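Quick one:
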Amino acid sequence: MTTYTAMRTSGRDTRLVPIAVATWATSLTAIFAPQAAGWLAASLWAGAIGGLAWAAHGDRTRAGRGALIVLVLSLALSAAVASHVAMAQPAREAALGVSLAGGRAVDVRAVVTTKAEHGPNGRLRFDADASSIVVGSERVSLAVPVSISVAAHDVTDGVLDLGSEIIARGTAAAADDGDRAVLLVFASRGVEVVRGPPGVLGLTSALRGDLVQGASVLPQPGAGLLPGLAVGDTRAVEPALDDAMKASSLTHLTAVSGANCAIVVGFAFAAAAACGARRGVRVGVAVVALGGFVILVTPEPSVLRAAAMAAVGMLAVLLGRTGAGLAVLCAAVIVLLVSDPWLGGSLGFCLSVLATGALLLLAPPLARGLTRWMPRAIALALSVPLAAQLACGPLIVLVSPTVPLYGVLANIVAGPAAPVATIVGLLACLAAPIPWAAALLTALAWLPSAWIAATANAVAGLPEALLPWVDGWPGVALLAALGGALALVIAPSGRGPRADAVIRWIAGIALATTVGVVCGAVALRGVAGPLTVPSDWSIAACDVGQGDAVLLRSEGVVALIDTGPVPAPLTACLSRVGLGRIHLLVLTHFDLDHVGGLDAVVGRVDTVVHGPPASAEDRAIVAALHAAGARTVEGHAGLGGRLGAASWQIEWPRAIGHSFREGNDGSVVLGIEGGGIPHTLLLGDLSAAAQRALRGDGGLADSYEVVKIAHHGSADQDATLYEELAPAVALVTVGVDNDYGHPRKETLDILGSIGAVIARTDRHGLITLTMDDRGVEVWRERGSVDGRG
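Output:
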């Protein structure tokens, strides 16, 4: 109790808090309004100089001098943050001034600054520092950060890793306000690795590659997880296991988070202690070990951030001064923000700070409170993951409106295995030059890795493992209120038994109220969901993220066009609109963002019409659907049928006479009308070239009331096609903050010029369309309530 009270009340321990808050607030202001950063920096510097002059004039009390020092430091450090942004702005504006409109081809030369990681759509994404951009005959030399995405098979031979020099060829668009990256580069024409990682970066890249290769001979899924646990290399983690890790709140174990860094620091500290080293030597050994770990797993910004937060938390705990830890945490936040102001808008940075703060401030009182109901050892084990989930959960809701119901349980079960897998896996990685030692250590590390994988799969399979939650900022507020009330119920206030009883009583009421509100909101996504959606809809565009999943319904007969990238959002959508059986499933093509959610409907489908299979994996998908009882038919132009009272026909691809037979340009294009369904055309992921060929075939109607825009609104569109189709309503199926900048401004301008009502799933959520005598009525889950086309 003494430590906790001192931590709350000591001025020495908390006076850096307002400085850190001011610095963070300034970083957010500067990165979201960079044009004003210069003016802001000048004003803050003037304030800091004025404060110093005031401090030099006359005597003041000790408290007054302390407050003035805090004010001056807040102004000066905030000014440094704003100055950083202001100095970077000319180069960023020069990059944004390059003519990129119309999907113009660009070549970007850059040096990779992060690992290349697989996204949910199967593409690789990484950050880089660009040195030049070539657009047509124009070459611009600059130094700005960019974010690059590329299909894995479009990377030329070479090592694509931190430090590699590359040329990315494709298109580019401006990144969102507040992002560190200035441009988003979509390398549709591939990435050429000019030079692999140099020096020590090349050595560590090879060591990580050897660990992945050595683990690959062991049984899955533990084998794929092991490099992630040891060195943060998740390239071999299977998609199903990745989903299970998210559902069980265990992804921090593979993301080189503070947990991984803390394990390394703790092991090094304990090893030095076992050798009889003094406390100062132990701390030094731990810091050196942490530095080596950072170099091995790649010193990218997220790893450096995690290492800084882990060093703060672990050193504070190991030195037995959690109050000092709060001051050091604030100092780390300030230093990181001054060196990189764009961290202020990073969700990962926020989560790191919250998790470390929870370890220092929330875990100790939670542990003390839990000891009233359980043994001290169990209370201590439970308090750390509980504190982390209470602190970080509200922000995670912004990314995915779900709560891992058994996350604390999963962390307790997997917790003992994580340090073993990390340390032994690290030793296996470092032992790569000695094959027999590396093989032995890898096999030993596989055991705890398999345990963690089994835990993730078991927990993810429990009922309601991912509890649906209220979306957006209301969901953040509700979960924060729920967590705060729970913490007040568990943790003693230190004000005596009577005060604790009153606080628990008030917190209990707040807890019950919040649970009631959340249960009502969750019910709207479940059994009560259909009551909130227009009952007479004929078209429904599901919000499944960056992917397609469109429902068509006539006289109770249902068709589903594509399944989105993962099963959970599609399952939620089908529940929301009250559907079970799918009479017709159309898989336009086999990209992950169109077939990744198949598990949500396997065994519930009567007939499958699919695009041309291009690989053994594509044919395996068709075979699995057939084995589950569906009749399967390859789609081609001219194939048609009935859906209730509606008639549907495939307009593309042509069976013969065209070279567009695979991938995006081989997408099935479906037209449908009648039976209450407006005249509709769904364009799959066709590029502009394929759209021109489709238009040139002359098989389309003169106009359509509804058009599902091709390829999530990418810039690669044929404007003439949309002008001829003249849709009243344009559906854009697209994910929030996707990697590609979809829908692109050029495409939105085309749709605006023809007067189409634009409905997009990233902004509007679930979208339904109803046909009546007055036209097409559009209902949006979010945003404008309705509209007519």
